[in-house]
Amino acid sequence: MSDEVMQLSQLWTGSHYNEGIGRDDIFDKLREECGVFGAFNIPDASSLGYYGLHALQHRGEESSGMCTVDSRNGGSFNYYRGMGLVKEVFNQERLDGLPGDRVIGHVRYSTAGESKLGNAQPLIFKYRDGDLAVATNGNIVNAPSIREELEQQGSIFQTTSDTEVIAHLIARSSKDFVSAAKDALQRLIGGFAFLIMTNGKLLVASDAHGLRPLVMGKLGEGYVFASETCALETCGAVYERDVQPGELIILDSDGIRFDRFEKLERRATCAMEYIYFARPDSDINGINLHSARKRMGQKLALESFVDADVVTGVPDSSISAAIGYAEQTGIPYELGLIKNKYTGRTFIQPSQELREKGVKMKLSAVRKVVEGKRVVMIDDSIVRGTTSLRIVNLLREAGATEVHVRITSPPFMNPCYYGIDTPDRKELIASQKTVEEIRQAINADSITFLSHEGFIEAVGGNDGEFNRGMCMACFDNDYPTPVDPTSEKSCSC
Amino acid sequence: MSDEVMQLSQLWTGSHYNEGIGRDDIFDKLREECGVFGAFNIPDASSLGYYGLHALQHRGEESSGMCTVDSRNGGSFNYYRGMGLVKEVFNQERLDGLPGDRVIGHVRYSTAGESKLGNAQPLIFKYRDGDLAVATNGNIVNAPSIREELEQQGSIFQTTSDTEVIAHLIARSSKDFVSAAKDALQRLIGGFAFLIMTNGKLLVASDAHGLRPLVMGKLGEGYVFASETCALETCGAVYERDVQPGELIILDSDGIRFDRFEKLERRATCAMEYIYFARPDSDINGINLHSARKRMGQKLALESFVDADVVTGVPDSSISAAIGYAEQTGIPYELGLIKNKYTGRTFIQPSQELREKGVKMKLSAVRKVVEGKRVVMIDDSIVRGTTSLRIVNLLREAGATEVHVRITSPPFMNPCYYGIDTPDRKELIASQKTVEEIRQAINADSITFLSHEGFIEAVGGNDGEFNRGMCMACFDNDYPTPVDPTSEKSCSC
Amino acid sequence: MSDEVMQLSQLWTGSHYNEGIGRDDIFDKLREECGVFGAFNIPDASSLGYYGLHALQHRGEESSGMCTVDSRNGGSFNYYRGMGLVKEVFNQERLDGLPGDRVIGHVRYSTAGESKLGNAQPLIFKYRDGDLAVATNGNIVNAPSIREELEQQGSIFQTTSDTEVIAHLIARSSKDFVSAAKDALQRLIGGFAFLIMTNGKLLVASDAHGLRPLVMGKLGEGYVFASETCALETCGAVYERDVQPGELIILDSDGIRFDRFEKLERRATCAMEYIYFARPDSDINGINLHSARKRMGQKLALESFVDADVVTGVPDSSISAAIGYAEQTGIPYELGLIKNKYTGRTFIQPSQELREKGVKMKLSAVRKVVEGKRVVMIDDSIVRGTTSLRIVNLLREAGATEVHVRITSPPFMNPCYYGIDTPDRKELIASQKTVEEIRQAINADSITFLSHEGFIEAVGGNDGEFNRGMCMACFDNDYPTPVDPTSEKSCSC
Amino acid sequence: MSDEVMQLSQLWTGSHYNEGIGRDDIFDKLREECGVFGAFNIPDASSLGYYGLHALQHRGEESSGMCTVDSRNGGSFNYYRGMGLVKEVFNQERLDGLPGDRVIGHVRYSTAGESKLGNAQPLIFKYRDGDLAVATNGNIVNAPSIREELEQQGSIFQTTSDTEVIAHLIARSSKDFVSAAKDALQRLIGGFAFLIMTNGKLLVASDAHGLRPLVMGKLGEGYVFASETCALETCGAVYERDVQPGELIILDSDGIRFDRFEKLERRATCAMEYIYFARPDSDINGINLHSARKRMGQKLALESFVDADVVTGVPDSSISAAIGYAEQTGIPYELGLIKNKYTGRTFIQPSQELREKGVKMKLSAVRKVVEGKRVVMIDDSIVRGTTSLRIVNLLREAGATEVHVRITSPPFMNPCYYGIDTPDRKELIASQKTVEEIRQAINADSITFLSHEGFIEAVGGNDGEFNRGMCMACFDNDYPTPVDPTSEKSCSC
């Protein structure tokens, strides 16, 4: 066992433990990096953006921002960005300050303090032809080298965000705006969904492999774009289709035009979107995620049945899969774990003394449900293993006689370079330990992971639709683009 | 059809509708009125209170308050109350301003604006023998007549809360404090859980029928009291027992003493606590509520099976029952409805124009799940029927071919006088319409309610514990105390 | 030299010192306790109250509150109170929540933290005949004994404020409201200005000696009452007259009626209102305070001329007097001391390290003005002497060669029992030391106080108006009522 | 009379008027555009910056910001900027987030809403050699043409602030940083004080004519730079000297070095700094401003004596001059006008209805002082004339029999291009009307302006110091640099 992992394990093996101190520690979960939303030719676009971003809030809780253009009023920019949830950053007065019929918006996780407000998106630039706003979800693998090249030529950057490079590439081009944008997009390697707005145009682009989700809907005479379909549904927009890999959509006073900056390749959508990130009521490439997750649970039941008294899921992300596991096995699904929905950023963490007394605040095991029972605990993934250990121990303390852990994805072994905030490889428990060692580390009676094939089948379901390619590099190390293992993996947004 | 109900129905029958404007309209749900929490002989009691009240937040989101006493420091009072969630009202600085080893706290719904902060509890009084703090959950049926009598004698009230009468009755008595409190409690008719604190003592009392839940736990050398067991669990306290009907527990420097102000009668716990109010991970009288609700769903399946493609529950309260229904019938449970967890008090309501465009913010139907399907929709109760109509229509708009409504309780026909905020009888759809008329009003293909017997069996389960009496007056008009139908029904807290 | 005073002196004698840590220490000044404002028969009375209270803000910066009644709408009460300045406590939304054509309002100093919001006025009570709101400025000397008597009879108090006794006395009376109020006012000993509002009436009363200022104005068809005339001026109201000692004014739907609860006695207005508390643009009993203070400076010049290069005043209260001194002597008035106007409650106090570096934030000496000069420094009073020492030292550090302190009032030797927050007698430097000892303690080259006669003449000026009686007990120990030296001196409001 | 001026006049001629609606209207005053503060080699530099900026708050109340570098820790940047006063933007937590021994800070007026936070300074850039922070006071006349040139070369701007051009000029230069900065400064035409910080260096520069004030002080082993000496005094720093025209001071780990980017020319300090902007306790080029303003009043008295009963000054800026006028003439100085110190950004403006009732909130005339009196009203300048008319009318309504206006500067006839926010020439009353017409427009009995010679003598005083050159272009149209009358005049900061 490596020292690091050992330390982490020891952290949670004592008789007293709790839910961590900082926010990041509370759930040892992967974090989505961003969500984007855009609307074109919609009256009061910022109000629509408010509800659309709100539906994407789970993709980023740290900062929110919107930029609007009123096409009937010269196309001047209005924007506001702030730290916090959409509902905290925007009030009616601020929405009133964002008139217009076009909007791009963004929700984001940040990794640092308030001085990083500067990194909140949409980023706003002023260049030769006017104003430029950019909102991204994802990561540009070769941004550092492009950035260095631009700086050598005298470019000034306002943020640490790699997103900024696309604005510089466009500003330095002598071609017209759309051609400049296509050139710029072609240079970028990685996984990204881009919304780019100028005084006159809105551009929508997905990377060459369609790594990050991006969908298009129709609302009245206008168009809506979002990271997930749940935002379309919230807005009352009708889903049209997923934006295609390498596609560039151009909207302006002449209407909508579909173009591409790369020839169409097989899609490689991020597998973790199916497993964990996207909302269960969203569809990706036509697949509803609650249903897909339920099928993962069913598949897992077929692959690794265990005789037990109750099935429970780790809330909120694994409930669907747990129900699927229960349906398939006939073991009753029960509410063995519960999450308190009122916690949030401003919540006061319990002191060490209180934690030692047993004060819990986010997740509790339900004694009446698990006491004296053999429990199947369904979770979607194991990153470092610390949270799993903690939850297994919560169940044991509440009286579970056996805890069988079932994971609805293959072992997570490789870092992501496309916009998911993953720890270093050496902190990924599955890259450091055998399955039996993991079982010991998390104090489980048994543990199994869903197989690659089972996972793929569960996603595809009994559904014949094509275009179901996935990036599963985190499981199989097969990255769809060149990556630079020495560079920072954090997202561009 | 009465005019009122017709109007309400028409409100939601149009082709466009949405989630209401004011908070009260958003979910036409009954509202619990309060939660109470107390701790005795616990170092840093206010921090424990913070986590305990937080676990009871679902019982009252509008105001929060705590009062502490430091028994080693003369017993002087410290308190703070404010509008908002526990995490909004209290920060570390405010907790630091509440030193002590004893605490009583309260979360509350209010029906009006900020000037009603005065009604936030614990209420604090200064009387002959020092300070007095009172926190209540419930309603005192005869408070208005006692209040009038006191006012005629020259008493001044600081609030509109009926809770205040107990303080006046105690202050005007010439007996010692405990005797005075017993006399006062004896005079009160209704359903209530009381925590009363003076500079030297903490009193804990449950009404003569045990209408409102109240439990006792042990934590180290101290005691914890709360409206629900989930607060004990959150605090790391060990559940001891439910406070008995008519019981008065006295804690002071001499320790704990169990007394009563009424002789023990059969318990009549509020049925709606089992059905809807209490958290699913709480136990009442030894019954876990998730399990009870699942059994309600199972019983409902046995009583009124319908052939369908999917079962879905109205979040959050009916998920357990829906899973029970699905398990019993073999029809798969699916996520047909989803609630957005980020909305809250400060959320901007969509304008009429946006609502007509279809903007939703709290509840959405999941198209991929329900499209072309026959749906069983499980809900816990129907009050006015407006929300049910709305949800049925949401499902139909998302493509459900049939919607069969199954309610996990008998028809709700009579107002509550014991602390639940219910509309007037004429607004209760089940007291105005036949089941068939209700079906039409909510646009369902079929509707059934759980029978009285089925409900009682589901609560009792296969569990032999005694003391399972319930108040089911809202279903059967059999009130355990005299009530005054002309008086205001709202709670004392 | 007493130990206490010695300690205080030593505090400021070192080579480094600064402006204190807590707010109270920053300026060792007496503090006015409250301001009251009322309006009757004025549309949108709360907006008028906002501007009126704002004009009285100098009389209390810690909490603000208003209560309104809409006489055309049944007389129901609306109120809001909060910690902070008027502009912080009230926004448009909160004013909108206070409809009505009658208002009473209050600004207040508090001596403790936020849990004392309960003491913010107007206090609101519910009694037999409806609602009762009370706002006071001043102190009731015999409130503790009345309170004890009431508690023995079973009364409950909601605050620690002595103001509350008047409400209980009224509630317990069997007479009609006005008679009950007169009886209650007769029982009270002390100095106070009362505004009392019920659903139907507004009462305005001044104590038997007129110790605390209270004026009446006319605005359109309505009436305005305030602690100072500056509030009338701000409201556009026309000054009518000062409320008389022992007067009770009754306003209701029958109009205005002038009554009394005590026979008219010689007025004994608080001398410190003339010297320091009231705004310079206010008039008391027809005397403008800027002019009175300028005359105090002139009189002081005649009584104790000293040859010097510049005259400077301690801002803000002593500027008028300093100009008077300069005019009389011909020595130029200069800006030798300056106060930073942006400091306030939220300001971060400099750390010890920064203070040792010389960081100042409230008061600075202006080097260019005082360097190499003999300075006359005018101040209004000396309480403990600590601030005087600090300012003298500031001037010396900035290069003043001589500092001659001139005080525009007699030595302050006795505590106030009528609503001014004064320290204990043993902390009053003038009651512990001779004038020469004071000079040494504050490091001045000379010091003189204005004589009693000079002070009286300066206030009366060359003006023949009668009714100029003053309470000068703080200078001469001649209290106009019995006082209880053992009781707490702090105000009732 | 031009139409515009006529309209403006009519605005205030009616029998009712008040203090305007928006902030800008409240006092028709010129507005300083910014203040800058820097410290080098000072432990806990951000705390010092807090007090320093606070002392400069009068130069900009809309936004505040600081950027720090810890030279012992690699020179990484920390910064925070926000809308509001220094005390509102920074709290202890935010200061703690700004560690370091070097700081540059900025206070600023903005002309627009919150979306302009992006323009708050210090501006932060990332370029080839690391980080760059810039804080400016003043205006660059030729920034638009440089900006256009840079944009044509593909530069992206993050703000509308012209300040940004200097960063681009530096980033695009192939020379070393200091040489690049000197080249850049040489290209800029205008009036400006610059603080420029990189990870390794701090640069301090004043424009070629020293138009905007900038001073240097010493504090322990470190240096302090500020727009005014009052900030040095607040910090406990010892004034060293004013930064010279065309000077460039370089501070880094090698210490301090004095260089220049232009050869030394005669200074042309902005005259309005002497008259109005700078704090009265500040010195510019060795002249104390209170004293200078008093001499302006004395000079005005000699030039245009008028027989009257009282002299009063428009607060706060004209008090010093009014005292000077009074001293010279022997007419007593009185407090005829008073400003309420508690108003501020969040203050609710009185409704039209209340204003018609006479509600005032910022400025009142003191009836007792001016009633029946002939008043000399001293003000520092007249811009549009609207405020003067309003104040004259306030005095007349309070009973003044005559109002003689005396202005302590020559007529303000020409817009400023160097950082003062002035209206267009056609709105400047003195450029549109004769003195007699102005007298009529403001409803005065007489009006005089201080002569050019009188003004110059008053500033120079009886003081022999050289280096007293002033820019008086606003009076005499003699601009020290080329200006572009067609360009926007607003400041770069």
Automatic annotation (TrEMBL), chains A, B, C, D:
In the C-terminal section; belongs to the purine/pyrimidine phosphoribosyltransferase family. The gene is purF. Mg(2+) binds at S317, D379, D380. [4Fe-4S] cluster binds at C270, C416, C471, C474. It comes from Paenibacillus nasutitermitis. One of its GO terms (biological process) is purine nucleobase biosynthetic process. This is Amidophosphoribosyltransferase. HAMAP family: PurF (MF_01931). It catalyses: 5-phospho-beta-D-ribosylamine + L-glutamate + diphosphate = 5-phospho-alpha-D-ribose 1-diphosphate + L-glutamine + H2O. It is an enzyme of class 2 (transferase). One of its GO terms (molecular function) is 4 iron, 4 sulfur cluster binding. Its cofactor is Mg(2+); [4Fe-4S] cluster. NCBIfam families: purF. It comes from the Bacteria. Catalyzes the formation of phosphoribosylamine from phosphoribosylpyrophosphate (PRPP) and glutamine. Residues 34-254 form the Glutamine amidotransferase type-2 domain. The active site is at C34 (nucleophile).
